[in-house]
Amino acid sequence: MNQEPQAGPKANPNRKPPELKPGTVKKLMIGIAAAIVIIYLGSSSFYTVQEQERAAVLTFGKYSHETTSGLHFKWPAPIQQVRIVPAELTQHITIGYRQNGDEVIPVDEEAIMITGDENIVSADAVVTWKISDIHDYLYNISNPEQFLRNATGASIRSVIGSQKLDYAITDGKTAIQDQVRERLIELQSKYETGIQIIDLKFQDIEPPGGEVEDAFRAVTNAREEKNTKINNAAKYENDRIPKARGEAQALIEHAEAEKKSRILNAEGDVAKFNAIYAEYAKNPDVTESRLILETLEKILPNAQIFITNSGSDTVNYLPLNELLRDKGASSSSGSSTSDNTQGGNAQ
Fold it and tell me: Which of 129, 133, 130, 127 is nearest to 193 (CA)?
């Protein structure tokens, strides 16, 4: 048989919950309040600064000091407050366009400007900057990024507004870029913004799209072709001038050598003439005859020379060629005999 479960004691509907004593309630409220205060103090008295950040500590709303990366203690608000800024981070802003991922969105109100010769040009730039002074950065400007955009736009317009379009889109890009960077640095220093300009680079300086852009592109191509031809001409000049100078120097040196040679020959002829003249002065007849014979021997090397005397009835002559030939033969034989004799004595 199944037995029915026995029912427990029935609740008394008239029973009241236990009452807390007044002292217990007071202690409980104090404990809860103390716990809340401790949690609040613990959460608001410590703060963390990341590696690329710095924190400005405000005591009763006034800047007191700054801290670097790490865990730091401060008095809870409203005694002290902390404002953390990315002071160690190098940042970039774009002028004339915005980049959203791979998409580039033009901003014409920043890019379009007028040149000094009243032409329209589009200029895009990138500014690299960082925070150099936290106090000036927080208190001297209300919107640092917008201020930097406005200052950059003003600097670009003031420089390009004083230049001609042709110069701005061709040879003057680098010079204009340097002038704009210097002007922008001056503005940051003048207004004490606490911003350090690291660099400014132009992406493009060109006329607006359409026929104007095509016309100026043609002008740019023509100028580049002109510069190429000038460079080629300068290269040819640098190649030819040294060669021509070398050839000229060689001709000069050859002429100098020829000059010295002729001077020496002339001096030798003068010395020879003076020597002959001295001998001629001593004995004119003999020297004259000798000169005549030497001249005849030079101009008629194979002629037979006879000296005759036609002053008498009998023609007397002196066969010089035969005498000289016989004299030469006898000299040769005498020299040969002398050599043999010396050889016999040596044995």
Answer: 133
pTM of the model: 0.52
Helix or strand run (H / E) with residue 250: helix 211-282
Q: How many CB atoms lie within 10 A of CB 76?
A: 15
For 147-174, the DSSP string reads: HHHHHHHHHHHHHHTTS-HHHHTTTTHH
Largest distance between two CA atoms of the chain = 210
pLDDT of the chain, 347 residues: tens digit per residue: 444 545 555 555 555 555 656 667 676 677 777 777 666 666 678 888 999 999 999 998 899 998 988 888 888 878 888 999 999 999 999 999 998 888 889 898 899 898 988 888 889 999 999 999 999 999 999 899 999 999 999 999 999 999 988 888 888 889 999 999 999 999 999 999 999 999 999 988 887 765 566 776 777 788 789 989 999 999 999 999 999 999 999 999 999 999 999 999 999 999 988 888 887 788 888 777 877 878 877 887 776 666 666 665 555 555 656 666 666 566 555 554 444 444 443 33
For the record, the structure tokens of 175 come out as 């010079």
Residues 6 or more apart whose CB falls under 8 angstroms from that of 123 comprise 95, 96, 111, 113, 156, 160, 202, 204, 205
Q: Looking at the domain that runs over 91-208, which CATH code has it been given?
A: 3.30.479.30
Structure tokens belonging to residue 14? 């008239």
Domains of the chain, residue spans: 26-85, 91-208, 211-284, 285-332
